[in-house]
Amino acid sequence: MDFSPTPERQMVAESLSRLLAEHLDAERRRAIAYVAPWHDPTLWAHLCELGVPALLVPAEQGGFGGAGFDITTAFQPLGAALCTEPMLGHAMALAALVALDAPVSEDMVSGNSRYVLAIGEPDVPYGLDDLETTANRAGDGWQITGRKSVVAGAQSATHVLVAARHGDGGIGLFEVGADAIDLTAYGMVDGGGAAELFFDATAAHAISLEADAALTTALTAGLLALSAEAVGIAERLVDLTQDYLRTRQQFGRPIAKFQALQHRAVEMSLHLEQLRSITVRAAASFGTPDGPRHAAMAKLLVGRRGRLIAEEAIQLHGGIAVTWEAEVAHLAKRLVMIDAQLGDADWQSEMLAEALA
Amino acid sequence: MDFSPTPERQMVAESLSRLLAEHLDAERRRAIAYVAPWHDPTLWAHLCELGVPALLVPAEQGGFGGAGFDITTAFQPLGAALCTEPMLGHAMALAALVALDAPVSEDMVSGNSRYVLAIGEPDVPYGLDDLETTANRAGDGWQITGRKSVVAGAQSATHVLVAARHGDGGIGLFEVGADAIDLTAYGMVDGGGAAELFFDATAAHAISLEADAALTTALTAGLLALSAEAVGIAERLVDLTQDYLRTRQQFGRPIAKFQALQHRAVEMSLHLEQLRSITVRAAASFGTPDGPRHAAMAKLLVGRRGRLIAEEAIQLHGGIAVTWEAEVAHLAKRLVMIDAQLGDADWQSEMLAEALA
Amino acid sequence: MDIRYSDDELAFRTEIKTGLAEIVWPELAAKVRAGSSLEKPEHDRFHAALNARGWLAGHWPTEHGGLGWDPVQRHIFDEELYAADAPRVVPFGLNMLAPVLMAFGSPEQQAYHLPRILSGEDWWCQGYSEPGAGSDLASLRTRAVQEGDSYIVNGQKTWTTLAQHANKIFCLVRTGTEGKPQEGISFLLMDMQAPGVTRRPIRTLDGGFEVNEVFFDNVRVPVADRVGAENAGWTIAKYLLNHERTNISLVGESTHALEQLKAQARQTRRRGQPLIKNPHFAARVIEIEADLEAHRITNLRMLSDAQRKGAPGPEVSMLKITGTRIRQAINDLARRGLGPAAAPFPSEALSGNAALAAPEHANAAARYFNNRKISIYGGSNEIQANILAKHVLDI
Amino acid sequence: MDIRYSDDELAFRTEIKTGLAEIVWPELAAKVRAGSSLEKPEHDRFHAALNARGWLAGHWPTEHGGLGWDPVQRHIFDEELYAADAPRVVPFGLNMLAPVLMAFGSPEQQAYHLPRILSGEDWWCQGYSEPGAGSDLASLRTRAVQEGDSYIVNGQKTWTTLAQHANKIFCLVRTGTEGKPQEGISFLLMDMQAPGVTRRPIRTLDGGFEVNEVFFDNVRVPVADRVGAENAGWTIAKYLLNHERTNISLVGESTHALEQLKAQARQTRRRGQPLIKNPHFAARVIEIEADLEAHRITNLRMLSDAQRKGAPGPEVSMLKITGTRIRQAINDLARRGLGPAAAPFPSEALSGNAALAAPEHANAAARYFNNRKISIYGGSNEIQANILAKHVLDI
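^ Those are the sequences you sent over. The predicted structure of the assembly is below.
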């Protein structure tokens, strides 16, 4: 048993952290994350040069990674830096294609093309079972009709992979060029961008007509990525809060001297430790039959305990934490809002419960 | 708006507290509550002399009370004293008969007869909907077949009222003499007694064949009584814990000086305040259309916050609280176990949710 | 025990409800429902309409031009404001400064300021908090040094709510440095237009602007504009904090927000049925509903106590803690109920066919984040817990 | 990162599993499942069987007759004990006194006592807590005064687990009153049969007997039976507290208890279906399962750290807090799952046709109440939080 990262992953993580420290300090991040296009194409290019997309792809498909711990290696530093580059959707698109053993283009591995995987819909934000978007044959190709909702990163994607139900009820995966889509882009309360995608007999190319399993793998990859992102954020929040307690003076002494606050700081550490461990568990299981189950557990704890960490970080900082200038505010917002991506805590709990009985 | 008790109820509550202080100190309570018949017939007689059963009956049926605040007036002091006299079952039986406008005997009002209302079954511990015990006509009378489970106070009842399903699917209320029933009596982990009641074509007398509404009223009265009992216990637990924090010395000072414990003591007070208020709410609504809803809310909060009060009382007392000699232990046990009577917090939540949609 | 409203109180409620229906115009109600910030003219128009009926200061004593509402009437008025989708009455002049003037102000100060508060001529804001002195008022550092018949004020205030609309500010300033830190504090009435006063908006974490920093650079304040004696500001501050807390249960606001939440959950569809039928979501709604019902009674019990006994005791700290928790729990659930649709800034283009939720719900995430403040300001919940601990543990 | 067990470790697990299947006899497993107290002969027989294979002291270093298991092996052994419905190994001699003797005892003490611990000839209990000194060991008051080559011991110990079976007790006693309170403490080995030692059982809140008070009235203890130097007991106590905590994650126990809970919830019927299908109950099970899975990894991470770095750090306080919370949450849910059927004392007549639940579940309420102790003893969770606060906040 060995809980240390491999030297290679350690090196990638450190390079990535350095890169982000250089190009995305807190002030710059605020300038990018809340203004269209809600990310920075230059920063995206830097991430690609470093090989972040390639890290998410196995060697057979032209990358140099693709394991669960590769995903966490990338997303934990991205989380700590509150990076809003549209890497999640790209990672999920890659995971779907890899799972289908479908061709992965060089441009996709290098990040020259930016992909996004569009699954959720207004009434079906989570899961695959009740999707309403449909695909119909049209000549040699397909036409997609329906709406995909709050697709993170879609505002700047060059290619969109769409999950849609086709004639015989199965769920297929279809590719559409971004410029063929009626798209409404917007910014998010926690930074970054997303879009509503409206399909009205929009021409598409079928990648697979039996994509259920591959989409489940992509969702698992997404849950793992979000959990790692959450760990990166939660670590920052815990650090900042501990620092603040040590430095902030009230009633003539550092507030870290107040036992009630001490115990609450300890609770935050306990939550964080659970998040770290369950994310390790999910990363180790990625690609095994336990992968989806452990990823769901990770996302469940991220939803529950992540919110508690975020709320306590704000409360223990006091007024300063509810201002736009405070890094802790933006970290807290992102950590809370992660819950609403790809299935919140209650959803994960329901999915896990179905397997319980 | 007036939140003070009427002078009459104030007087009854004080007399009752005095009576219990005289006859049921902590040591004597332990001697009674855990040894067959798990209550004290002499104490029962004293309670009846004071008019506790009569307090639960309206004047029209020969009592001098019967309102929601009469129920709480009786049960809150009974709770504070951890009295295990079988008053709950008697109160519920009375409430059912009153709701049916059925005759209430003088012996019942005086408490010379001890009644119990048997509803719950092994697979149907809560609610009326899925009851499996049946009643069949036999000549002029009826025969009951089935099992009633963990019927508190049944071990010492003289008469049993049984809820059973009859021919056309309705739920009726039937009376059986206690000596006609195959009964296994036992003591409870929180003190007091109960019994399993086995009916095998047991002869019974029909009180009503349409008892659903009356049984709902009886259950509402039971929930209110249990909530008031819980308030009485919770007040004692909060008092004892605050006293303990003020007196107990560790690390050279009273542990009340430790801020982390201070804040937890405050949390206990907040829980208690919620229990007090929701019980007032339920008492005020008893007999109105909102009665069942507010009683369910009260029992819901008793289940959730009562447990937290009990657990914190033990934790803040430390080791001493897990001993048999400690009053706090017995108070905590009873407060926790109240949750499992007549529908626990989850059950109440489900019932309330059904009305929500 | 009779916890029903009296017939008079019920009639009072009907009167208020009917009147508010006439006062609140549709655009105002829509903005309030959507949680949008109001413009100053909207505030002014609403205040003037309330004042025309005497309701703006209904809770003021009659000798000062009020109607002498008791705490229960005031609570009913508050509930009805929310039920009517009316905005909260801006409290700084009416509910905070006015009681201070009535208790500590000179007859001249009362005669001059109280009518101007009612008329809307003066919009007051509150200069209490400073950077570095949030919950710890004794450590405040803004200084006032007497020069002839004026004080010269230097320093900085922060978290000054709606200062962007205000022409006046009441401030706690340090006038003495001897004795205990809280002994050298005075209470000044200041003009926001005076030379040397500047304000800078603080953007809150949700992107909104409602609080400000206010800077004082050699601002001259007539000594006559001090309320109470020099160095007696601590007493006034404590009096005011207590008054500020009387309306802190948030029962009216939470009741209304819970109804909004239920409406939202009935409209939202998940797995082919309304969200309100999801057992987990429903259970959370139910628990809040039960907690709010209990809290409502606690509030009425304490109002009824206050009606009999006069000033509220330390138990009102309970109302603050429980009230803010319930309010925040509703905010949290409203955000969660929307799922991913809570994340977009609704201000940005989510109109027309791209709309993700009804306008009154779409702001759920921003409101959740913004309302993290309510357990921090007005004496943080930790400070309230300290107050309660002193009370219940006799320490 | 590779969080799988190595092949050697998997082989080790198989060996233990197979062996325990041979060692644990059916009546023992049934009693363990039902949570019943064991008689002394049952403990003795089980210990002897483990000792025959060398497993009783598998974690002892080889020079003292152990097998030198590393922390991971020890954890595997612990998990398999629970999986086999085997009782916990009584830890006082084996896991608490033995490491102290190895670290601080004289060669004579080691040579005499360690074999007697293994053989079962001596059953040790722990004399730490005193009335009035629970978490605050520095304030203990049992006194040992030297007289010739003996100490004369007077005082009282409490919470002495299974002292009813013990013939020996190791004690912290006060031998000095100067300096800091913790400086005058010594560590003594005492004979429970010595004149002046009396014990009195403490009944626990669930009605059981497992802890005791032990009284010392002029008990004579040879100075040779002191471990370490006079007044050096505090160092030993801290060392021992640390060792005691290494097994405190309760991962093995909780894993097994969670499986029992699920089995119970599959058997229990509510509203016409198994309780496990109730959304609320299932959600609680799921949350515990996720927490336990995380905690399992935390435990392995810390074991793996300990394997590399030697002694565990203050992070083990995390294992204590989280481990006890998870264990108590399972106890709580098992009790709740039974509903009213949890309330009767199963010892009283709930057999035959009156049975309310399978014997391994029927004790759920008593176990829940009894296990409130686990967040209190061995350094309460509040003490653990203090330790962690020092660590994370550098205070």
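The interface with chain C takes residues 279-280, 283 of chain D (CB under 8 Å). DSSP finds 13 helices and ten strands in chain D.

Shout if you want it in another format.
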